[in-house]
Amino acid sequence: MTTEDLLSALDIAPADQGPIDLDEGPGHAPGQPAQPPSPTALVLDEWSIRRGAEASEGDVLGPILTGHDREAAEATAADCLAAAFEPNPQLAERCADETRGRYFRQLLETEEYHALHAETRLDPVASELAAGHFAQGYVALTEQEEEEPHGTPPGRPADRPEEDLRQKMKRDMRALGAAAKALESASQEVDDLRDAQRAMGMGNPEDAQRIPPSELKARFERIRDSRQLRRIMELAGRYRRLAQAKQRQKTTHGRDDVVGVTLGADLGALVPSELAALGDEDLELDAMRRFLERAMLQREYRGLEPKARGPIVVVVDESGSMRGKPVAMAKAFALAMAWIARHQHRWILLVGFSGDSEGTWCPMPPDRWDQGALLEWLEHFYSGGTTMDVPLETLPARWKELGCPEGQTDVIQITDAIVNVPDEMRERFLAWKAQAQAKYYTLVVGEDDPGDLADVSDRVWCLPDLGLENDAIQELMAL
């Protein structure tokens, strides 16, 4: 059978490049035309390339890629964004820009990249932040290679294979170093973003999805550009981790009512048939398997709260003596208490006060946090004197107006002043506290005497600062 007969039987049209010799042996591969190099280091579709072109003129990647020509800047931006955003970025077989291809190959092969990519993929804000650092690393690499002498160093023969290998290894090491620096800075910024999101009540991905990416980005930039907000967010992460630990250690109130059957491995809650299976010789092995897989039938309980839970209120002194670290710690503590309130499905009311009866107010239900108002409250600072008008007079007067639900309420006041409370003010406040079912806790920072605040407080602590090691902070985190 000839070649033409075989192609005809298989209904294959003969190729234009001439006859195919079928007798050239199994090691022979027909010649294939060389694929043109890819303009990008990654395999990208038209949407990713178009997104890169838009980002190359944006406020993150635009300033970094200013010195590159338009096509190179667009391709670089597309690669950087895709490496951070795409679920499964793939390297192109050959990149037209050898340096960029080498850089992204080294980048994608590191463990640090895969850890970072788990945080940035399909997240437009986090991926854009990471892409900016990827671009900075690539630009730094190109500048470094331009400064390096080209060709073979004097005294070394240029045509030896080991010299080519040495030069290639040197280029790869430079690319790996640039990628490592980019990953370190990108990981730090993405961690800062996540800390800010958690502090602002956006710890779950679905919470962040409710806010447009441009708004999320603007809020993060505001935090990044404000020294005070950055300090508060950094401290808030530490307070929140303590709050999470204290909340996990609380005794669960929850064996009041059986509501159904679920799967698990709680011996005390197994239904009678499962307990019987564990004692049956024929069913024992299968029951033990299901126990190890946490797939045994057990009773599902529901806890009954003896009292309705009202809001958590944090009142922060913004007088001049609280400037700097004291007020930053106080507001970071307030953010952690806000996390506890949300965790317990309670309202949070944040109040700032100083020397008059005006005050700043930020009430938030557990499912409708106003991040814009929260940022305003965190950044605000009166820098005046200290009077108790807001916490002891204005707060009770505005209580119904603020819309806070009724129930057991916890009010925490933070101040660094020894104050006097007039008798009439004290009596009116104590009457409101009883009516609102409120417990009043006072933290006096830097003083040994609580003054008249002891007369209106259920608990009062005098502390050198608001450090996490203080028993008062740990006790309040367990509310």
Folded structure, characterized:
By secondary structure, this protein is of the alpha/beta class. It has 3 domains: 46-149 and 159-197, no CATH class; 257-302, no CATH class; 309-477, 3-Layer(aba) Sandwich (Rossmann fold). It contains 17 helices and 8 strands. The strands form 2 sheets. It has a 6-stranded mixed sheet with strand order 5-4-3-6-7-8, with helices on both faces. 32% of the residues are buried.
How would you summarize what this structure contains?
The chain has 479 residues and is an alpha/beta fold.
Chart the SSEs and their pairings.
Elements: H1 3-9, H2 46-55, H3 70-85, H4 98-108, H5 111-120, H6 124-147, H7 161-199, H8 205-209, H9 213-225, H10 227-249, E1 257-264, H11 272-278, H12 284-292, E2 296-302, E3 309-317, H13 325-343, E4 348-353, E5 360-364, H14 371-379, H15 389-398, E6 408-415, H16 423-435, E7 438-445, E8 459-463, H17 471-477
Parallel strand pairs: 3-4, 3-6, 6-7, 7-8
Antiparallel strand pairs: 1-2, 4-5
Helix pairs in contact: 2-3, 3-6, 4-7, 5-7, 6-7, 7-10, 9-10, 10-13
